[in-house]
Amino acid sequence: MRSLGTTPVTLVLGIVMVAGSTAHCQLKQALSAVHAAPTSKIVTVTLTELHQGKHHKDMEQRIAQAVGFRTDTCDVVTTFDVVKEYEKRQTWTNVRQRLDIVIDGKSYPAKFRDLGYYPLGLNLACIDFESPAAHADLQIPVLPLEEDTSAPSLLPSDDKDTATINPGTPFLNKEGEITAVLVATTMGHAEFASAEDIRRFLLEAEGIPAWPVLQRRELTAI
Predict the structure, then answer these.
(1) Secondary structure, 3-state, 188-206
(2) Average pLDDT of 193-210?
(3) I need a surface site. Which of 45, 47, 48, 152 has the fewest CB within 10 A?
(4) What are the structural domains of the chain?
């Protein structure tokens, strides 16, 4: 009889503990949830195909477009899809291509930093302004990477919301740091590269200069 009397109390306590634990997890997720960066924090990379039309006038056709974000290492980090389309056509003799970084509706000639095919297995690409002057003159805000990468970042769980977001879009925590970036996969679905993944990618990019290094000759050699 004694043990039967304590059963309802134990059951109630168990329900309260489970409910409290669930509420705590939901609260933690609400406080730590990340959100897609606003449009003002991302830039666009476009690939345009140029064909010679009538009267020798160029006809332009947009082939690929992706969003990206500014870093200290690469002018723009975006998805590799744009580069894949560029590489597919670079040996076509009858086609010319133009890569641009688009900021506030204005296009700036760009080039991609050749890090190899899918470096580190990530669908990311490093895009630089073609001109060092443009790199120096344009003030694009740099999005910092999440500093605390010891704990896994909480990513959006709503697939419907994620499906409407363009690959290359960074997700920010409440401090405004990049916690992950949405990338497309070879299988067709989207996944997230973490801040640590991006950091490793940028480490690879640092070893390849954006522009040719000019060697200054000594006066005696002239």
Answers:
(1) CCEEEEEHHHHHHHHHHHH
(2) 90
(3) 152
(4) 37-206 (2.40.10)
The encoded tokens of residue 115 equal 């890090």
Helix, strand or coil, per DSSP, at residue 184: strand
pLDDT the model gives residue 22: 41
CB of 129 closer than 8 Å to CB of 71: no
For the stretch 142-169, pLDDT in tens is 889 998 766 555 565 555 566 678 889 9
| Cβ–Cβ < 8 Å for 30, 101 | no
What lies within 8 Å, CB to CB, of 22 at 6+ separation is none
Cα angle: 112, vertex 113, 116; to 5 degrees: 110
Q: Report the alpha-carbon distance of residue 75 to residue 201 in Å, rounded.
A: 14
122-134 pLDDT tens trace: 889 999 999 888 8
pTM for this structure? Answer: 0.74
Q: Residues 6 or more apart from 5 whose CB is under 8 A from it?
A: none
Mean residue pLDDT of the chain comes to 76
Sign of CA pseudo-dihedral 54, 56, 59, 64: positive
- Residues 61, 53: contact at Cβ < 8 Å? no
Strand arrangement of the beta sheet that strand 178-184 belongs to: 35-36, 170-172, 178-184, 190-194
Contact 47, 98 (CB under 8 A): yes
In one-letter notation, the amino acid at residue 128 is: D
Q: What angle do CA 56, 60, 64 make, to 5 degrees?
A: 150
